[in-house]
Structure formats: structure tokens, C-alpha cells
Automatic annotation (TrEMBL):
Source organism, top-level taxon: Eukaryota
Region (Disordered): 111-152
Keyword Iron tagged: yes
Protein's recorded name: Hydroperoxide and superoxide-radical responsive glutathione-dependent oxidoreductase
Gene Ontology molecular function: 2 iron, 2 sulfur cluster binding; disulfide oxidoreductase activity; metal ion binding; RNA polymerase II-specific DNA-binding transcription factor binding
Biased composition (Low complexity): 111-143
Family: Belongs to the glutaredoxin family. Monothiol subfamily.
Source organism of this protein record: Cyberlindnera jadinii (strain ATCC 18201 / CBS 1600 / BCRC 20928 / JCM 3617 / NBRC 0987 / NRRL Y-1542)
Matches recorded under InterPro entries: Glutaredoxin, GRX_PICOT-like, Monothiol_GRX-rel, Thioredoxin-like_sf, Thioredoxin_domain
Chain ranges of the Thioredoxin domain: 1-108
Function as written in the Swiss-Prot or TrEMBL entry: Monothiol glutaredoxin involved in the biogenesis of iron-sulfur clusters. Binds one iron-sulfur cluster per dimer. The iron-sulfur cluster is bound between subunits, and is complexed by a bound glutathione and a cysteine residue from each subunit.
Length: 254
């Protein structure tokens, strides 16, 4: 079975509603510009062909922000595994091995006991759809499950800042900014037709605090181009006043 590309919100609802409750559904959120997604695309397609009993859906996070918001996608690649209207597993990151392992475990039933134990913690898909809009703005960021060393954090920050040629670290998402400064910078990027990746710092306090030291800049949003820190809202505005082609020139500089 090949990967099904979701082309609209209604299409997504139709695909997830028509599947048998006992069938496992895999969701893969990606963007065409994110380098980590290039390798994942091939792996995901191969997995779909090898596992015809699983429904593999592919979702462009840029083109379908409402679906991305529904699952609180803050960075790509992002995977969600669903069965019987229940979210069983959510995986963020460019290492496909974790997704492959989760897929195998859920298919083989080796994690049945663990799934039963976690049932009370897993929100039904329908409930998630109803609660996401209000929960996104009020729910505090999840604490890290294990302490991350400064070296590991810096390595992760470097990877995140280079995830896309233009990378925005903001409060909220482009579809639902959680502060006026982030909203303004998103508007500027869109007005200048700049394709950009984003990371919601409200979802990861380690990234939020770490970037302040990493970039030597205490506030957000923060914009990176080719892995280099460019500044916050005011500096980007100043750069555009001095050079209307600032974004194009900065992207092409390396």
C-alpha cells in the first residue's frame, strides 16, 4: 500500500473516519523544505509498501496548519500512531528508528500491557480535536523526562537552527501565534514570500532557555538563516529597511 497524501482537512477527516477501528493509522507531518524530511520521505514510503495492513498518511504541515495544530506539531518530522480513535504514540525527530520500533511494537502487540497502563493518559482523538484550541494557550510546557546535558542541548539547538534555511523560533505556531511580536514576524516573512521552518518554544522550555545563551539574545521570536542568528523583530525590520532584499541575500550568502 502506498502513502496517501492528505489534500484537505475534509480529506483527512474522511480518511481517518473510514478506517476500521482495529486498523493502525500512521500520520507523518513534513514540509518540503526541511532537510531531515528528505530521508524520512523515502523511509516512510518503504514502510508503507512493507506494511499494507497499516494506513500511512502524509501531511504537509505548512499547507494544513489546522491539522498540525490539532496534534500540536511544533517541528517536523513528526509522527503520530492512532488506533481505534486513540493516540498511541507521538514521535518528534529525524531518526526513523524510533518510529520503526514503535510501529513494530504496536503491530506485534508486544507493548499491549504498556498501552493498557497508559490508557488513562491517552486522549481519544475526538476529545483531542475538541480540546486542542483551548488547551494550546493554557497548558504549561511539558517538563523534560530526563535531564539533558549542556553539550547535548547545544547539539540539539544547532540541529534545530539548521533544520531549515530560514528557521523561526516563536511563541506558538504560524497558524496561532501566542504573542504579538511572533505574529508580526510571521506576517513579515509571509509578506516577503519567505519559506520558513518554525519551532514553538512554549512546548520545550529547554530550547526556550537554551537559545537565550546559544544566541546571546534574551527575547523571542528569534530568526536564524542558514544556521546563523539574525535577530529579533526589531533587527529584522531594520535590516529590511536598509535592504529590501535582505532575506534573499541572507539565504544566498552561504
Amino acid at each position: 500500500m502506498s502513502v496517501i497524501e492528505v489534500n484537505s482537512d475534509d480529506h483527512f477527516t474522511e480518511l481517518t473516519s473510514d478506517v476500521s477501528p482495529e486498523k493502525l493509522i500512521a500520520l507523518y507531518f513534513y514540509t518540503p523544505w526541511a532537510a531531515p524530511c528528505i530521508q524520512i520521505n523515502t523511509v516512510y514510503q518503504q514502510l508503507a509498501q512493507q506494511n499494507p495492513e497499516v494506513a500511512f498518511l502524509s501531511i504537509n504541515a505548512d499547507e494544513h496548519p489546522d491539522i498540525s495544530e490539532l496534534f500540536e506539531v511544533s517541528a517536523v518530522p513528526y509522527f503520530v500512531l492512532i488506533k481505534n480513535d486513540t493516540i498511541l504514540k507521538e514521535i518528534s525527530g529525524a531518526d526513523p528508528q524510533e518510529f520503526v520500533q514503535a510501529l513494530e511494537e504496536l503491530q506485534q502487540g508486544t507493548a499491549a500491557g504498556q498501552q493498557q497502563q497508559q490508557t488513562s493518559q491517552q486522549a481519544p482523538l475526538a476529545q483531542t480535536q475538541a480540546q486542542t484550541a483551548s488547551a494550546t494557550s493554557s497548558q504549561p510546557p511539558a517538563e523534560a523526562q530526563e535531564e539533558e546535558s549542556p553539550e547535548a542541548l547545544n547539539a540539539r539547538l544547532k540541529q534545530l537552527t539548521e533544520a531549515s534555511p530560514v528557521m523561526l523560533f516563536m511563541k506558538g505556531t504560524p497558524a496561532s501565534p501566542q504573542c504579538g511580536f511572533s505574529r508580526q514576524l510571521v506576517a513579515i516573512l509571509r509578506e516577503n514570500q519567505v519559506r520558513f521552518g518554525f519551532f514553538d518554544i512554549l512546548k520545550d522550555d529547554s530550547v526556550r532557555q537554551g537559545l537565550k545563551t546559544f544566541s546571546d539574545w534574551p527575547t523571542f521570536p528569534q530568526l536564524y538563516i542558514n544556521g546563523e542568528f539574525q535577530g529579533g523583530l526589531d533587527i529584522i525590520k531594520e535590516n529590511l529597511e536598509e535592504d529590501p532584499n535582505f532575506f534573499q541575500n541572507a539565504v544566498n550568502a552561504n
